[in-house]
Specification:
binds heme C; 4 strands; 6% strand; two-stranded antiparallel sheet
Length: 134
């Protein structure tokens, strides 16, 4: 029984630990980019996630275009039509469990929508939004 409880708590801690570690490293970077940095903001994250921009392929697009605004549901790739599993770590335990994967996709996805990489502050805002909303 004790082993089972331990296994369950390890499992449920994993995304929380990785996302904490990631958010903390973004905080350090955000402070280097801007000494007046005051912390991440889920409302700004929502703005980043839902607002539309002319993206890399010249089409108006937002993060919602592929991930939908309900992070607990499947999304669909705007360009290829492929199903994307939910972005919410509560709905999809594989999410936010590996910093390398998060970084790779944020870099690619910010480029898709904003035609540039996100700043540490923007990435932190949007991750905090996903954690709060999901
Ligand atoms: C053109 C479609 C598309 C757009 C637009 C898009 N994404 Fe994604 N995103 C994907 C795909 C595809 C994956 C990787 C496949 C998967 O993991 O299901 C992914 C993965 C991610 C992940 C990885 C999470 C993890 O740990 O597995 C995050 C975080 C993410 N996207 C955030 C964003 C944010 C923030 C935006 C807006 C700046 C955005 N995405 C816009 C298609 C998109």
């Amino acid at each position: 029984m004790r082993i089972l409880i331990l296994a369950i708590s390890l499992f449920s801690l994993s995304f929380a630990q990785v996302s904490d570690e990631y958010v903390n490293s973004l905080k350090t970077q955000a402070l280097q980019e801007n000494p007046n940095f005051k912390g991440f903001d889920s409302n700004r994250g929502e703005q980043i996630f839902t607002s539309k921009h002319i993206g890399k392929k010249g089409k108006e697009i937002s993060c919602v275009s592929c991930h939908t605004s309900d992070l607990s549901k499947n999304g669909e790739n705007f360009f290829t039509g492929k199903v994307i599993e939910p972005l919410s770590p509560k709905a999809n335990p594989k999410r936010l469990t590996e910093i390398k994967t998060i970084e790779k996709w944020l870099k690619r996805n910010f480029n898709d929508v904003y035609n540039r990489e996100g700043t540490a502050q923007e990435k932190g805002d949007v991750i905090v939004y996903i954690l709060n909303k999901g």
